Amino acid sequence: MSTFLRPLFATVGLALIVSVGGCASKTARPSSASTVANVDMPANATPVTSGEVKAASATLRVNGLSCPLCATNVDAQLKKLPGVLAVQTDLGKGLVRVGLNSPYPTTDEIAKAIDNAGMTLVSISTP
Amino acid sequence: MKNSAALAACASACALSATLSTASAQEAINTTAAVQPSQGVLYMREQLRFTKLGDDPTTTDPAEQRDGWRAQADTSFIYGLRSDLAISITLPFEVKRIEQGDTSETDFGLGDATLLAKYRIWKADTSPIDTARLSLFAGAEFSLAGGAASSESVDPIIGAVLTVIRGRHGFTQAFQYKFNTGNDAGRDFGGDGPDDAFRSDSANLFRLSPAAYTAESTSATYAVLELNYLYETGGDQELFLSPGILYEAQRWALELGVQIPIAQDVDERPETEYAVVAGLRVFF
């Protein structure tokens, strides 16, 4: 191999190794890729506008979920919150269902997480 | 190819091979977007670019005319400090071959790194999918290691970018100005010379698949079409049509495109015949 190509391939190879390592890493982020699911707004959904979201699950209506990568951003930010067990995103409807447990997150914490993801929280509802 | 009038008419749109990369999803191949990775998220982009030189208008002597190519591997790391602020660094490695008459010279090494901050000043998320965002960016291009691939100067960069996503379409318009503080006379490729460089990039990403997102959507494929315009204050300017394709999954994306000159008015360096770009984006 020509000597001047070695540093080039070394650079590209290092970048690829870092990329594969990032894809395989389970510890760099608190979540893997966003779980997709058919999320519907519960029939008797109750809006929650303040305080703790004390329920086994909540459905968030989120705007700005313009792509699959964006959904992963939301997943990552929500799973940083204590009390958030699982996140399911329905990109088609702009709905995010979160499984909750004690200590329950507050509406402000959820709104902040969505904001940290770069999206806009429209509403929080519980069954 | 010279068409100053056509280039002037297109001066409000497009730019060449801007490898600024502080964005993520909905970002075209040669055009930055007004989006950032979310807070605490690290994103890496590896972009390989091959550029072939075309006609050399700087001399009529065949023995002095330059021809050649450049292969670049740009490695960018972008980190979300906040949802509206990201920083990035791009580390370029290049191999360049210039032929002049009966002589040829091959250089390789680290090019100038680019350090940028991108700050979103406005956002409007109007529906589950639709959004509009405006960001400003600033930073500098600087020498890492000197040598043939380096300008050996610190060149400030400022810019602004607007991204609007409506349904299956994503539109981006970006402007960038680089102040050249060093003397780069003798460099062969657009934007690397002794002049300041203004770039205007326009991009349209059209989602080929899926037609509409569903609950099962975990990926998307986009057709990319860009107009990339470069104006150097020495008077050289080039306008490129850049079609491509982008496949985006939940934590990675692949991009592939070409850049084809559709108008050129170049006197100080060789023209660009074409460029081919391929890249990988990974979210950690």
Explain this structure:
The complex is a heterodimer of chains A (127) and B (284). With 127 residues, chain A is an alpha+beta fold. Helix content of chain A is 32%, strand content 24%. Chain A contains 3 helices and 6 strands, in the order αβββαββαβ. Chain A has a 6-stranded mixed beta sheet, with helices on one face. Chain A is globular, with a radius of gyration of 19 Å. The N terminus of chain A is likely disordered. Chain B has 284 residues and is mostly beta strands. Chain B contains 1 helix and 13 strands, in the order H-E-E-E-E-E-E-E-E-E-E-E-E-E. Chain B has a 12-stranded antiparallel barrel. The radius of gyration of chain B is 19 Å and the shape is globular. The N and C termini of chain B lie far apart (44 Å). About 6% of the residues of chain B have low confidence. At the A-B interface, helix 1, strand 3 and helix 2 of A face strand 1, strand 2, strand 4 and strand 13 of B.
Low-pLDDT segments, ≥5 res of chain A: 1-32
**Terminal-residue CA separation of chain A:** 64 Å
Largest sheet of chain A: 6 strands, mixed
Strand order of the main beta sheet of chain A, please? 1-4-5-3-6-2
In percent terms, what proportion of residues of chain A is strand?
Answer: 15-25%
Global outline of chain B: globular
Number of helices of chain B: 1
Sequence of secondary-structure elements of chain B = HEEEEEEEEEEEEE
What is the structural class of chain B?
A: mainly beta
Shape of chain A: globular
Compute the number of strand runs of chain B.
Answer: 13
- What's the arrangement of strands in the largest beta sheet of chain B? 1-2-3-5-6-7-8-9-10-11-12-13
How far apart, in Å, are the first and last alpha carbons of chain B? 44 Å
Mean pLDDT over the residues of chain B: 87
User: How much helicity do the residues of chain B have?
Assistant: under 10%
Q: Which oligomeric form is depicted?
A: heterodimer
> Helix and strand string of chain A, N-terminal first?
HEEEHEEHE
Helices of chain A, by number, come to 3
